[in-house]
Amino acid sequence: MQQAAIKLSQSFPKPRGSSSASLAQTDPQLATLLAQEEERQRLKVRLIASENYVSSAVREAGSSIITNQYSEGYPGARYYEGQQIVDQVERLAIERAKQLFGAEHANVQPHSGSPANLAVYLAFLKPGDTVLGMQLSHGGHLTHGSKASITGKYWNIVSYGLDPQTKRLDYDQIRRLAREHNPKLVIAGHSAYPRQLDFAAFRSIADEVGAILLVDMAHFAGLVAGGAHPSPVPYADVVTTTTHKSLRGPRGAMILCRAEHAAKIDKAVFPGLQGGPHNAITAAIATTLQEALQPEFAAYAAQCVANARALAAGLIDRGFELVTGGTDNHLVLVDLRNKGIGGKPVAAALDRAGLVTNYNAVPWDDHPPQNPSGLRLGSPSMTTRGFREAEFRKVSEWIGRVVDSGLDDEVIAEVASETRALCAVLPMP
Ligand code: DSN
Predict the structure, then answer these.
(1) Which of 141, 217, 357, 381 to mutate for ligand 1's pocket (most ligand atoms within 8 Å of CB)?
(2) Cα separation of 396 and 70, whole Å?
(3) Alpha carbon distance 69, 72 (integer Å)
(4) Where are the beta strands (DSSP E) in 16-97?
(5) Which of 289, 302, 368, 398 is deepest in the core (most CB within 10 A)?
(6) Residue 213 in 3-state DSSP?
C-alpha cells in the first residue's frame, strides 16, 4: 500500500495555478506595495481611533490554511462536509467571546460592523419600523440611521444628539424622543464621542417604550474587555462590535446577545444576510479573544484611556478646543474652529508630518463633511506600540507646532523627522 502511494505521488505534476512560491516571487508588484505599507505603519504615528496593530499570532491565524474552506451554517449544522476542524475553531471563538464579555450567546460570523448592525435590524424589525439612534454628525455611525446608509432608507429613523452646552448626550432628550416616537429599536454607541455611555439610562428608556436595546460597542470593545469602560452586556438585548479597533483583532465583527434572541440573531446573519463565514478571520478572532483574556490586556486598555487623557490635556494646554472638553475613552475630538483652519488641510499636513489622523465633523458643524471643522484622534494603535503619557504629550506638542505654524512646510519637515526617529526605534508586531 505504502509503496503504491509513493509511486502515485511521484507521478503527480506540481500544483497547477496555485504554488508554494512566495508573493515576492509570483507578484513582486503587489509584494512591493505591501512592504511599503508595512514601512508606513512602522514609521508613522498612527492616531486613527478605529485602527490598531494586530499581533503576529492574529496575522498568522488570519491568513491560515482554513481560508480554503466553505462553511455555510453553524458548528454542528453546516451545509458542507469537512467541518471537523472548523467547527472546533468557531466554537472556540464563540466560547471565548462569551467568557470575555459575560454574554449568553455570541455569533462570530458577521463580516464587519455594518453587516452586524444590519443583522440586528433584520432580526427585530420590518421595513418602515421606527429606530432611535445617534445622529451621525454628533458622533453616531452610518448604520445608526444616516440617510446615506441603507438603515436611513429602509427604516423610519429618529435621531438623538448632544446637549448644545455640554456636548454630552442628553438623556432627557433621548427619553422624550422615545416617548414621542415609540421606536422598536434603540441604539446606543458611537464612532466619535469621547465619553462613556450611561447604559442603565438607555435600558430604562428602551424599557419604557418596549424597545429592543442595541449597543454598538465597536469603538470601545477593547476597553470593555480590559475593564477600562463599563460593559453594556448586562443592560443590552444585543451588543455588536467590530473586532479590529480597540479589541485589536482582524477585520471582522461579533454579535453578543441574550439567549432568548440567539435564534433570531443567528438566522439574520446566516442565511439572512451572509453566506459562508470567513473561517480564517474566525480563527484570528479566536486568538484575539484569547489575547484579550490575559491580564496584560487590562493594562493595555487602561493605558489607552490614560494616553488619550494625556493627549487631551496636552492639546488643551496648546489652546485647542476639544468636544466635551476632554475624554474618558480612547478618542479625542478636536474642534479646530478657534484655530481658523479646516480639518481636511490639517489632517493632510499632519500626515506629511508623520501623524496619521482623520478629519471629522464636530457637533453643529457649519462646514460640509468633505472639509469639516474637526480632527479625530485615538490612542489604541500607538498604545500597542508602547507609547505612554509622555509620548502622547509629545504628540500634542507636534500637532500644536504644525497647526500653529499655519501648516508651514519647514515645520512639517522638522516634525516629520522627529516622528520618524521615534517610530524607528519602536517595536511593531
Ligand atoms: N466609522 C468608522 C470609524 O470609526 O473609523 C468605523 O466604522
Answers:
(1) 141
(2) 47
(3) 10
(4) 45-46, 73-74, 77-78
(5) 289
(6) strand
Q: 80: CA distance to ligand 1 center in Å? A: 34
Q: What is the gyration radius of the CA atoms in the chain, in angstroms?
A: 23
- pLDDT number for residue 204: 98
Half-sphere exposure of 213 (CA within 13 A, CB side): 26
Q: What is the pTM of this model?
A: 0.95
d(CA 239, CA 227): 16
Those residues with Cβ within 8 angstroms of residue 131's Cβ, 6 or more apart along the chain or in another chain: 121, 125, 145, 151, 155, 156, 157, 158, 183, 184, 185, 186, 187
pLDDT per position as a tens digit, 94-106 = 999 999 999 999 9
The atom number, within ligand 1, closest to the CA of 142 reads: 1
CA distance 187 to 207: 13
Q: Which domains does the chain have, with CATH numbers?
A: 61-292 (3.40.640.10), 295-425 (3.90.1150.10)
Q: Report which of 233, 134, 269 is spatially closest to residue 190, judged by C-alpha positions.
A: 134
